[in-house]
Design brief:
Elements: H1 5-13, H2 19-23, H3 28-44, H4 49-68, H5 72-85, H6 90-101, H7 108-124, H8 129-141, H9 145-158, H10 163-176, H11 179-192, H12 197-209, H13 215-225, H14 230-242, H15 246-257, H16 262-279, H17 283-296, H18 301-313, H19 317-330, H20 335-347
Length: 348
């Protein structure tokens, strides 16, 4: 007996609500390949509901993975595609709403659309805590903090350990300037999830703004969880620099350099130059690091300006003017370089 390719696929993959969880490997590469294969099968017979469901299941799987990893551009692509295929499915609607609220360039219309989706979901599923927190986030972005907190309190009555509800509360209190409540909310979020590095970063930033050295402990905790995240490394290094631990700061900045990310590498090299220049008064060494920063990212205005300051201090005025000129080339509105260049120009 001959078995068609399409039927064979169904036998291999099965169908039903748990199909994707049974057959999808957690490896993103395998998941990507699976989506490509299921898309081809679906497009070959778009009227086949079983094929469509298999394809949507895979999109939801990858979309939720992207959501957890904060890969919001990829999330939007999968969520929008899944929602177009089945807008009646509350799971696709929820993922699409999450994608809209986390768009980098989200508009007021995006927020309003997400709010409508969340409301529809919570009307049909009033105990869906993720949707409630998403709904609260839309009110937060509309600066209706009172309504957002009321919704979050409802969510926490359903699940008092739901981490993201405390995170959202922390964000709201921070925006309201109620920093003690913000810190308390982020601390509670950490109690629910000890590996939630974002809360450590937020607490570090709040304490650093208060000039409280305890911020270092929070940044260190975040780095321990995400040792190769350049933004977190920079937060720690800059705090070490601010609180007068230049040697430690240089070690952390050099870890950033080792990541080979040109943008962050240049920022780290520039900051090492600042330490060499102002903490150790080593102008030649500072110049080396500023030059390295500009080689890594030729558009880094701060590095060109700092280079100019070093040359000016060494009385190498033509090189100083050239450096200030480079800074102004990349940012004509950069006032520090404009002032230094004008002063040297009129001093001649």
């Amino acid at each position: 007996m001959k078995v068609s390719f399409g039927i064979l696929i169904l036998f291999l993959f099965g169908c039903g609500s748990n199909t994707s969880t049974n057959i999808v490997n957690e490896d993103p590469k395998n998941l990507d390949s699976l989506i490509i294969m299921r898309e081809k099968i679906y497009l070959a017979d778009t009227a086949n509901m079983a094929y469509r469901k298999l394809y949507i299941d895979a999109l939801l799987k990858r979309g939720n993975q992207s959501y957890k990893e904060h890969n919001y551009s990829k999330l939007l692509t999968d969520a929008a595609r899944a929602f177009r295929l089945d807008s009646a499915n509350l799971e696709t609607r929820l993922l699409y709403a999450d994608a809209l609220t986390n768009k980098m360039d989200r508009s007021f219309d995006d927020i309003a659309a997400a709010q409508r989706h969340y409301k529809m979901i919570t009307e049909k599923m009033p105990t869906n805590v993720r949707a409630l927190v998403g709904l609260a986030s839309t009110y937060t972005q509309q600066t209706n903090f009172e309504e957002a907190i009321k919704i979050l309190d409802s969510a926490l009555k359903i699940d008092k350990k739901y981490r993201d509800a405390y995170v959202m509360k922390g964000t709201i209190y921070r925006l309201m300037g109620r920093l003690d409540l913000a810190k308390s909310s982020y601390e509670t979020a950490i109690q629910q999830d000890k590996e939630f590095y974002e809360a450590y970063v937020m607490l570090g930033a709040l304490y650093q703004a208060e000039k409280n050295e305890i911020c270092l402990q929070y940044f260190q905790s975040a780095v321990a969880l995400k040792p190769k995240d350049p933004e977190i490394l920079f937060s720690l290094a800059y705090a070490e620099q601010v609180f007068e631990y230049p040697d430690k700061a240089m070690i952390t900045y050099k870890k950033m350099v080792g990541l080979n990310n040109n943008v962050y590498q240049a920022q780290a090299l520039n900051q090492i130059g600042v330490i060499k220049q102002y903490n150790f008064n080593q102008l030649d060494s500072a110049i080396y690091y500023y030059n390295s920063a500009t080689q890594s990212d030729s558009t880094l205005v701060e590095a060109w300006h700092n280079l100019g300051l070093c040359y000016e201090e060494k009385k190498q005025l033509s090189q100083a003017m050239r450096s200030y000129g480079k800074a102004l080339h990349f940012n004509p509105q950069y006032e520090p370089s404009r002032k230094r260049a004008d002063k040297l120009k009129y001093a001649r």
